[in-house]
Amino acid sequence: MFRARIYAQAFTLVAMVGGSYYYREQREKEKSRDVKIAEMKAREKQQAWIRELEVRDKEDKEVSELRIRVGRWLMCEGSGVVDREGEEVVGEEVRGGEAGKGGGGGEEQAVT
After folding, report:
1. Are 81 and 90 in contact (CB under 8 A)?
2. Which of 13, 25, 88, 108 has a CA positioned 20 to 30 A from the CA of residue 72?
3. How far apart are CA 71 and CA 88, in angstroms?
4. What average pLDDT does the structure give for the chain?
5. How many angstroms separate the CA atoms of 45 and 51, rounded?
6. Does the structure show a pLDDT above 50 at 112?
7. Comparing 5-9, 28-32, 69-73, which segment has the lowest mean pLDDT?
8. More confident residue, 24 or 92
9. What is the DSSP letter of 107?
């Protein structure tokens, strides 16, 4: 009976060492897969952040352009001369007919 117990304990020890060796490869594969997944998620997160920064930059440029247009409009308010984009023109030359004043066929007018 004692010999059977020793053989069983030896078998248990061998099974533990063998199982550890066998599953070591599987654990390494899972680890490498987890690392690859983490890298992919990090890349996706970085790309999303870059897209967000590009959107913010575009919005900032649009706001800046709008502020410039509003500033021009406020400075020019009351002159009555408007260019093709709908912005008022002050102190620039305007070809006849485009600004909506003094119509002729191509002569230049100085606007003040």
Report:
1. yes
2. 108
3. 11
4. 79
5. 10
6. no
7. 69-73
8. 24
9. -
Tell me which residue of 101, 103, 72, 105 sits closest to 89, measured CA to CA: 72
> Quick one: tokens of 77?
């308010």
Partnered with residue 93 across adjacent β-strands are 110
Tokens of 43: 């890349």
Within a 10 A sphere around the Cβ of 99, how many other Cβ atoms? Answer: 20
Query: Where do we find the tokens 């406020």?
Result: 74
Single-letter code of the amino acid located at 85: E
* Residue labelled with tokens 């006849």: 96
Which contiguous run of DSSP H or E holds residue 63?
A: helix 2-76
Q: If you count them, how many residues does the chain have?
A: 112
DSSP code, position 103: -
Structure tokens at 108: 């230049």
